[in-house]
Amino acid sequence: MWVCLERKQKEIPFALENTPCTSPSGFHALVGGLSSHRSTLKTPRRTCEHLHLHPFICKHIFCVCTDCSEISCLDCSSAATVLAGLIKVCTMAADPGFILLVTPLILLLCSSVQLIQIPKDLTVPPTITEHSNETYVVYPNDDILLKCEGTGDPALMFRWTKDDEFFDPSKDHRIFTTPGSGTLSIPNTNGLMVKSFQGTWRCYASNKFGTAISSNIHLVAESTPKWQKEVIRPMTVEEGESVVLHCNPPNSTMSRRIIWMNSTLFHIVQDQRVSMGLNGNLYFANVLSQDSHPDYTCHAQFMAARTIILKEPIELRVKPTNSVKYRKPRFLMPPGSNSIYYALRGTVLHLECITEGLPTPDIEWVRLNGMMPLARVSYENFKKILRISDVMEEDDGEYQCMAKNTQGSVKHNYRVNVKAAPYWVKKPENNMYVPGETARLDCKVYGNPIPNITWRINGVPMKDLDPDPKRQIKDGTLKLISLQTEDTAVVQCEASNQHGTLLANAYVYVTKLPPQILTQDNMQYEAVEQMTVCMNCYAFGSPFPTIEWMRDQWTPVLEDDRYNVLTNGTLCITNAQKEYSGLYTCIATNDQDNATINAILDVKNATKILVPPKDTRVRIGDSAVFQCNVLFDSSFQESSMSWKKDGMEIQESDDSSKYFIEDSNLTISSVDNTDQGMYTCMAWTQLDSVEKSAVLIVVDRPGAPYDLELSDQQDHSVTLTWTPGNDNNSPIEDFIIEFEEDKFEPGTWHELTSVDGITHLAQLQLSPYVNYQFRVVAVNEFGRSEASPGSERFQTAEAAPERNPGWVKGEGTNPDNMIISWENMKGLDWNGHGFRYLVKWRLQGQAGEWHKKEVGQPPVIVQNTDIFVPYEIRVQALNDIGEGPEPKTIIGYSGEALPDMAPENVGIEVLNRSAIKVTWSPVPKKHIRGHLGGYKIYYEMEHRIGIHGKQELRSRRHIKHHVFIVRGDQHHATIQGLEPFSHYSLRVLVFNGKGEGPPSPAKPFQTPEGVPGEPAFLNLKLVSDTSLSLLWDVPRKPNGHITGYFLQYQPVNKTHAGVLTNINISDPHQRRWTLQDLDPKALYKFYLRALTAAGEGVPLIIEGSTVQEAEFPPVLNITFHSDDNSTLIQWTPREGQRSVEVQVRYLKKNRIAEDWQVSGSVNSTQNFYRLLKLEPGTNYRIQLMAWNHTDFMTFWEDEVTVRGIALPNNQGSFATEGWFIGLISAIVLLILILLILCFIKRSKGGKYSVKDKEDTQVDSEARPMKDETFGEYSDNEEKPFGGGDSSQPSLNGEIKPLGSDDSLADYGGSVDVQFNEDGSFIGQYSGKKEGGAGGNESSGAASPVNNTVVGALE
């Protein structure tokens, strides 16, 4: 569909100044309607002359294609048709950049198209609107239709010439014509008739204003195509040779299509080896045995003749051979190494290179004298044809094709010469002139060779006309000087060379007419800001009227640089703004009259994308969100937005959860690789559109590597190569090589090494005697890939061990042994059969023989050693192939015993009230009898000096024992954190790996007096509106003698504090102080400190005032309402009451008072509080509290039941059930009765076996050392200083079961039980003792209260 729009004076992207309507470049593709789609650029079949337009109008308009699917003429007299054409939307996707640039201008033109009213009484010179093609081929069965149509007023008269001779169709009864048309219709009654009409035809259309002519029409009569007779013989070739099957189709003026098939009409499959040339021949670069067929048939299809003809089948016989010879490429088409090719501008160039060779050659194309025109280049026939579309002069040059295979290469050079049929640079245009004016008609044409230009007037060559000085021809330009009305005529310019002919008709119309404005009055134009808006004022008249625009109060617009009036009268406003809206008036004037119209402009806000989408990287499976915040002008009745992916609109369907569009934002759920691409947010109105794009990159951990291969296999090394998987848009950082072996840990994969992500091979150094399998894992920033499939297995050769075991050590568990241990070597380090360890040891410093022992695994136990003596130890790996490297010598020791000496010369220096320094003499090494662990300082506070110097005695159960550990051979320590004004005692002992030695005698010390702690409490009591009483108590930690108190107070408010007032209270017994003359409206802050000789203590700070507290309680009318898990409490504040903080507490029913929990606080003026997270079906106590003088006080309490069903109790908590408690109580009672009976029986005659008792004694030197760290304190109150009373059995000792025949009578018949001062049991049985165990013995296992029980009680 073609519509007519104005041609602008200024050059803009879609209109060219002074470009004739009949030129292909004068027709421009535009975007139609409201969608971002673009029409393809097409050359119309008809010019503006064929649109029945007046010649004056054609000068000021151009034709626009608005329909991609069909090209047809449009009568501009129908406004509805014009608008329908403009709204037509092409279905091809648009380039976004083109849309952004062109759409506003297109919409501008669309809004300015007007119905063109041509005066009905205006006569028009002739114009030919349609004629047949310059080459017209007919076949024997075709009818002949020589077209010639035109427009003009008065009506046209048509005539024809044939071979430059006048031809009268009325004299030939075979020719039919139609009134008002010049078309000749010749029905074909027999096949021989068409040849009589063969020749060159031309049509002439005339009225009183002149004559227009058509181009020459060359009518060609062709016979039906037929194959030439030839003898077809079978072709026999050996396998691997090349062969050409010739087609030789008949020649024809019209195009043809060649197809090779067999007798069953199956196409011959073509590929790089077998292909058809442009000449129709079938080429085999090398034949295979399966190429043998008896029926290779060439089919030729002639479209114009509607005919398909077949050639006789060709039989191809391929003889198998066992000696196929490889050969380098050779050209079959074209022959030789050089060719010259002529191409015609605007056509399609095909350069062909077909070769033979074995293996099948590959073809490559290059241009030798420049760059390939990539936008117009494509390759066909498996790259054997180079295709360049729309050939241009710059394509002239040299092109080279190169064929290569493994045997060599061959080249062919094409020299391409580009020729050109005549084409317009500037063609003469129809125009209207007034008497006396000079007409200039330009006929500028290019071509190669240079075209010959001839001029005609009314179809008569200029050379056949009488000379006239008013006609001047120079350089392709015709001037007609001082025109008069009788000079009205149609002028023809014809350019020709050997490649074609170009013809243009242009009429010169000389007349006078008053101005008429063809644009509708009071047209309303809409535009958006920053857009170019044009308001039309198409005027008609002769001479051509001058156009002037006015705005508001008749102000000429040309006084403002923002406005521009084009030559056709259109007013264009660039970069329109809101203030440009208003009423405009167009005035058209010539010497005959004047005319005016009004135009109304409304400039709206441009559509904007405030928040554009941003480029996003999303991992597979996650969701991607693109934002697009759009702002439309509120006055638009229609506005919309949408999303596109890679140019295709996204449709949000109900049955798909992939895309979700809400509030102009796009969400893509469960992203996968198919979602990657460009996402575009588009927003549009009827006037403008805008779009922004962002890229979605889908990332993930890499794909698994594959194609693992082993190469360069050596005894203990191999090279592994692999192919990486997809990196999923995140570069691979590393490849991890893992291995698995099938002997020691089959099925378990271990990491062997890793390489950089750009490396695809690894040289692997391997252990002997291992059957390896490898796999590769790729790693990027998102994680590890799946492992590759396993490689083939690789077995390494045996060898002697390459290393010895680690972590070799010798340690004794008893004083008379040493256990040699080491870390077992992994099977991967055995390196061969018969793996074992060779263990050697000897006393350190003795160069004697080594003790040796071969074992399969650790440990080796050396017996009968002295206490804690050093040994040299070696452990070496060996197998049946040989021994490992020479091992390192390790020093080990036999077993340790407990130290037998306490540190001496313990000294204490008091540093300050909370720190002391302790020193001592080191214990000799021989008395340590093991590895020195360090020293421990046990200290305890015996009592604190209380108020007035009195001692605060503490019971033994409240004495807190501390331990300070000094690691290594250090003989002093500083202990901090002591309580001031207190009595302490300490002991020092040494410890080794076995345990602690005996402690030093207790050494007492006293810490000096310190500053006191804060007073125990400080309360305020209101005396009057100007006085307060302060009440307090002594500090809980006086840290010395309290000598008095120091009181300070000051007024405070939100911004600053007032002057401090100081009061010294010298009486240490004072507990109350009253302040007078206080400001009744002020808030005060009080600071109270206790004093000792060491100074002031920490202050206790509170705030208060003499202001009467708010009336209590602060709220009234308290109600509550519960739902499933909350309770809403509501109240009414007291009238005139200031805001008071209300605290809400709750307690689950049947809980103790300490379980009250504070839910939160709220101002009393809020009227309500919701208590959340309560358990359904549960009873609660709820309290409301408010501050009253000095503390929070409860002013309301009630019981609340939360609505709902209570959750069931935990089924596992049966311990609280009554039956269970009763059962346990009965069991305990029975056990107690049995124990009493047992004691009675033993006291009457039972005996204890002393021998059994001694056998069960615990080795006092087998106690493990506590794992303490240097400088740490131990607050274990129950640990005694001695430490030697607790023991454990020796490794080889046997413990006899409880129960013995020994009697208590053998030990004196009584039990001496000792207790602490608080009554706790600390003693053991005393009486007759046997053996040498000394103080470490007790009644042992025979006593119901043994050392273990004593330790637990302590």
UniProtKB/TrEMBL annotation:
Species of origin reads Geotrypetes seraphini (Gaboon caecilian)
Its record classes its membrane topology as: Single-pass type I membrane protein
The UniProt subunit note reads as follows: Interacts with SHTN1; the interaction occurs in axonal growth cones. Interacts with isoform 2 of BSG.
Which regions span the lipid bilayer?
Answer: 98-116, 1219-1240
Q: Which UniProt keywords apply?
A: Cell adhesion, Cell membrane, Cell projection, Disulfide bond, Glycoprotein, Immunoglobulin domain, Membrane, Repeat, Signal, Transmembrane, Transmembrane helix
The protein's name in its UniProt record: Neural cell adhesion molecule L1
Query: Which stretches of sequence are listed as region Disordered?
Result: 786-812, 1250-1354
State the protein's purpose: Neural cell adhesion molecule involved in the dynamics of cell adhesion and in the generation of transmembrane signals at tyrosine kinase receptors. During brain development, critical in multiple processes, including neuronal migration, axonal growth and fasciculation, and synaptogenesis. In the mature brain, plays a role in the dynamics of neuronal structure and function, including synaptic plasticity.
Gene Ontology MF annotations: cell-cell adhesion mediator activity
Which ranges are annotated Basic and acidic residues under compositional bias?
Answer: 1250-1269
Task: List where Polar residues composition bias occurs.
Answer: 1344-1354
Give the Pfam families listed for this entry. Answer: Bravo_FIGEY, fn3, I-set, Ig_3
The segment(s) forming the Ig-like domain are 126-214, 225-309, 329-417, 422-511, 515-598, 607-697
- Set out the biological process GO terms recorded for this chain's protein: axon guidance; brain development
- Location (main, coarse): membrane
Where does the record place the Fibronectin type-III domain? 704-799, 801-897, 902-1010, 1014-1110, 1112-1209
Gene Ontology CC annotations of this record: cell surface; growth cone; plasma membrane
Q: Where in the cell is it found?
A: Cell membrane; Cell projection, Growth cone
- Lineage of the organism: Eukaryota, Metazoa, Chordata, Craniata, Vertebrata
Superkingdom field: Eukaryota
Q: Which family does it belong to?
A: Belongs to the immunoglobulin superfamily. L1/neurofascin/NgCAM family.
